[in-house]
Specification:
Blueprint: E1 2-6, E2 9-14, E3 17-29, E4 31-40, E5 52-57, E6 63-68, H1 72-81, E7 113-115, E8 119-126, E9 131-138, E10 144-151, E11 154-162, E12 180-186, H2 189-203, E13 215-218, H3 228-241, E14 245-248, E15 253-255, E16 258-261, H4 268-278, E17 282-287, E18 291-292, H5 297-301, E19 308-309, E20 312-313, E21 321-322, H6 328-342, E22 346-351, H7 371-389, E23 394-397, H8 407-411, E24 415-417, H9 424-435, E25 443-447, H10 455-459, E26 468-470, H11 479-495, E27 502-506, E28 509-510, E29 524-531, E30 536-542, E31 550-553, E32 561-565, E33 571-574, H12 576-581, E34 583-586, E35 591-599
Parallel strand pairs: 6-7, 13-14, 13-26, 14-17, 17-22, 22-23, 23-24, 24-25, 25-26
Antiparallel strand pairs: 1-2, 2-3, 3-11, 4-5, 4-8, 6-10, 8-9, 9-12, 10-11, 15-16, 18-21, 19-20, 27-29, 28-31, 29-30, 30-35, 31-34, 32-33, 32-35
Helix pairs in contact: 3-4, 6-7
The structure holds zinc ion.
Zinc ion binds near residues 307, 326 and 371.
């Protein structure tokens, strides 16, 4: 990469093409080898790929460029065709709005541009063979490029603002350039993960560092076809299951952009507040505050508030338009809408869709070239003012399935999802992927009715980390499913006080070899919540029967333990040598398993 002076800035050039203004640079000598580990969150643009962690070896004369931000999968695909390619929004008639891909294909292994979360670790060796690491986290949710190279034993990292979104001439109007927090030192990739984790933990708002991950039911299993009677019926089963929050997903609103209940909720907000309070749940609502239906009163009264890109209004999720959050009056409007909900019973806000608009309108408050940056500021201003005014409303980040991941996102929320698939297998991968960086009460996951799986397989993994969000047709669950769910929920309730001080990982198993990338399509998905005390809650879903009869699970704790099979209730003492030899899990039939392991030294009496 070349650095070329341009006014007050340096501009990055790769193979003669300008990428954009360099916002920050970091260099370190003495590296013999280095691997960059990227985390990829869920994107509907690459839904089969789902959540994954990918390693790239930095080779001399090769460059790796991580593309971070809300539209990263589509942006990286475009940049791989041509780094100067303009980015846009799809305009096909059949387009349902959750996809942003216009040019190219989602990044594959050999591509230079890779979409990634804003949390990255590098690990390698120094000239004397010592382990070295770098851990870095983006502070902001803007679209940003992180350029990596290793040449002549020098590691270079640059943060670049892509010129398609931040025109080079406009950057002089940026009040403060986005930055990355960097930690570096001696140690291997696990040390790097621990450092990154501590950076992220510090960004978590005080109230969200230690809370009991709730049990939530959400109406998305019914799609947008919701009404007051349906919510009342969901609430009835929620009461039976002793669920704690009931969120009404898309479909409750009058129309996207007008955040009041529609006529199908005949008793309005007071009716919803009463239904939830009678069922012992708190009222939660889905909202896509950054969107407005073209037919909504806000879009009709204020067409000038809509985000435009290259002269056109964007067609985004569910064929709505984007409201420009970089424009002051929009934030004032949304602030009023949110306050009205919070004053009428809202206690959990699940926000979704395009909360960060990409806008280059000339008639908004922001400099024309910096709409996305201003939108990030506007969005977080809206959330932080709302959070301080309504301390009892919790904020869940959904962002079209779980992005972006950066320090500001964490700083403005109480939990985030990692996967939008509502699928046991993908959720297991996302729980582990997020679990490397976030405590176990910060990784919400959606559970649907996956009737192709056994009941135990449908339920087991949701005991491990939270919040646990049920999205199935709970009023029509069988007595057997209700009974089994109650059993697993009791396990979840018993373990969740420990979630803030532990994390979810792959459980250690022998007798079967996982794919090194631990994909969602594997026959066996074993995940464990591991607490600092050595306690371990392990869920294992055998999705396809293996030829072999069994595998063995090895708890992380080395010592005597009491192990309970939470589906049978059987409990047994294991000596240290038996724990080391492993606990047998049958694999000759597809089934879910759930075990609690407690060190004998911590068992009272
Ligand atoms: Zn704008």
């Amino acid at each position: 990469m070349q650095k070329v002076h341009s006014g007050q800035f340096e501009v990055a050039k790769v193979e003669g093409k300008e990428l954009g203004v360099i916002a920050q640079s970091f260099s370190q000598t003495g590296w013999a080898s280095c691997t960059v580990r990227l985390l990829r969150t869920f994107s509907w643009d690459a839904k089969e790929r789902a959540f994954e962690i990918v390693d790239f070896n930095l080779e001399e004369k090769h460059e790796l460029i991580a593309v971070c931000g809300p539209y990263a999968t589509a942006d990286a695909a475009a940049f791989n065709l041509d780094p100067e390619m303009d980015v846009g929004f799809p305009e096909r008639d059949d387009y349902d709005g959750v996809l942003y891909l216009v040019h190219g294909q989602p990044a594959a292994a050999n591509d230079r541009y890779q979409d990634a979360a804003g949390w990255i670790v590098l690990a390698g060796t120094g000239l004397k063979g010592e382990d070295r690491f770098v851990a870095l986290a983006l502070e902001k949710s803007n679209t940003q490029l992180v350029h990596f190279s290793l040449d002549n034993q020098q590691l270079d990292i640059s943060l670049i603002l892509p010129k398609q979104i931040y025109p080079i001439a406009a950057c002089s109007e940026l009040i403060d350039l986005p930055q990355i927090q960097i930690k570096t030192g001696l140690g291997d990739i696990e040390v790097a993960h621990a450092e990154l984790r501590s950076m992220i933990l510090q960004a978590i708002p005080a109230r969200a560092r230690d809370y009991s991950a709730p049990l939530i039911v959400d109406t998305w299993g019914f799609g947008t076809n919701v009404n007051q009677a349906l919510v009342a019926s969901v609430a009835k089963t929620a009461k039976e299951l002793e669920l704690e929050v009931l969120t009404i997903d898309k479909g409750w609103e009058n129309i996207v952009g007008e955040w009041q209940p529609g006529p199908h909720f005949e008793d309005g907000m007071p009716g919803l507040a009463e239904i939830t309070s009678r069922s012992g749940t708190r009222l939660g609502l889905w909202a896509s505050l950054g969107n407005a239906d073209p037919a909504s009163s806000v879009a009709l009264a204020h067409p000038d508030w809509l985000a435009t890109w290259r002269g056109k209004t964007q067609v985004v999720s569910h064929r709505t338009s984007s409201l420009c959050m970089g424009h002051g009056p929009v934030i004032e409007y949304l602030s009023g809408q949110l306050a009205n909900l919070a004053n009428n019973g809202l206690t959990w806000l699940l926000h979704d869709f395009e909360t960060i608009s990409r806008c280059d309108s000339a008639i908004h408050d922001h400099p024309q070239g910096l709409g996305e940056d201003w939108a990030v500021r506007g969005w977080y201003r809206l959330l932080s003012e709302f959070r301080s005014r309504f301390e009892n409303v919790w904020l869940e980040n959904c962002w079209n399935g779980g992005r972006p991941l950066d320090l500001q996102m964490v700083g403005h929320h109480d939990t985030t999802i990692g996967d939008d698939f509502c699928d046991v297998r993908h959720n297991a991968v996302a729980k582990v992927g997020l679990g490397k960086y976030l405590p176990a009460h910060w990784c919400s996951s959606y559970m649907s009715d996956q009737n192709s799986l056994t009941l135990k397989s449908q339920l087991a993994i949701y005991a491990v980390g939270g919040p646990w969000i049920l999205m199935g047709d709970i009023p029509n669950w069988s007595a057997e499913k209700l009974a089994l769910a109650k059993r697993v929920m009791n396990v979840y309730r018993a373990w969740r006080p420990m979630f803030p001080t532990g994390s979810v990982r792959w459980a250690s198993v022998s007798g079967w070899q996982a794919d090194s990338r631990w994909r969602a399509d594997q026959e066996v998905l074993p995940i464990s919540f591991i607490h600092e005390s050595g306690k371990e809650l392990m869920a294992c879903v055998v999705t396809n029967a293996l030829e072999q009869r069994e595998i063995r699970w090895h708890p992380a704790y080395k010592g005597a333990m009491v192990i309970t099979n939470e589906f049978t209730g059987e409990s047994r003492d294991y000596e240290e040598s038996e724990i080391a030899a492993g606990i047998t899990i049958p694999t000759d039939f597809a089934e879910g398993h759930l075990f609690a392991a407690v060190p004998k030294s911590t068992v009272e009496g």
